[in-house]
Amino acid sequence: MYDYVLAHNPPLNAAQREIVDLTHQKFPEAAGMQSAEEQGALLAFLVRLIGARHVVEVGTFTGFSALSMAQAMPTDGTLIACDISEEWTAYGREAWAGAGVADRIDLRIAPALETLRAMPAEPHIDLAYLDADKGGYIAYWEELVPRLRPGGLIVADNVLFRGEVVDPAATGNALAIRAFNDHVQADARMEAVMLTVADGVTLARKR
Length: 207
Ligand SMILES: C[S@@+](CC[C@H](N)C(=O)[O-])C[C@H]1O[C@@H](n2cnc3c(N)ncnc32)[C@H](O)[C@@H]1O
What we know:
Layout: H1 2-7, H2 14-26, H3 37-50, E1 54-58, H4 64-72, E2 78-83, H5 86-98, E3 105-109, H6 112-117, E4 125-130, H7 137-144, E5 148-157, H8 172-185, E6 190-195, E7 201-206
Parallel strand pairs: 1-2, 1-4, 2-3, 4-5
Antiparallel strand pairs: 5-7, 6-7
Helix pairs in contact: 2-5, 3-4
The protein binds S-adenosylmethionine (SAM).
The site of S-adenosylmethionine has 20 residues, from helix 4 and strand 2.
């Protein structure tokens, strides 16, 4: 079924394929953190749908999701990519340069909360992709929502956490995600839908 889904989605372009393959080759243990192939297409679709020019990514790893969004942005768009790993994001930098989108991506190596708090307070972000440490999601959400323009989107990954969110004995990251999902649902500033895409993706739109 998954092969069928991929076969009926836009195929990865050469730059996407290269970073997906390279990530599995260089970091076989960590490669599972990479957003799924169909999420690259979904993120690009959403960027085009809302004409996003100001994008923020929280959790960049080797750069696949940032690449997918940057390729869909206009040439004068800016994507601020937040991560704490120089090692992983170095592969992203190379992939972005190879794809000709490096000038659209501003990589900030620091805890994402610091980067978000230093951003202008006014509503200017069109789309934010949340895909970093799960315990930080609520804090990231609280920094992002006021900075989103009306109609802007937050896309949150791993909201089902391998199904562990419904486990009564859930601990750690699964528990953090469960608290995040409740937080999102209770936030009257946003309209949110939870989708069973990949490991669960919530799309939330600012009213
Ligand atoms: C799931 S991976 C991101 C995957 C990426 N979106 C992709 O599609 O390839 C999570 C990333 O969050 C980063 N991270 C973890 N804690 C962080 C923090 N406090 N601030 C910023 N980044 C963090 C990790 O270094 C890791 O690269």
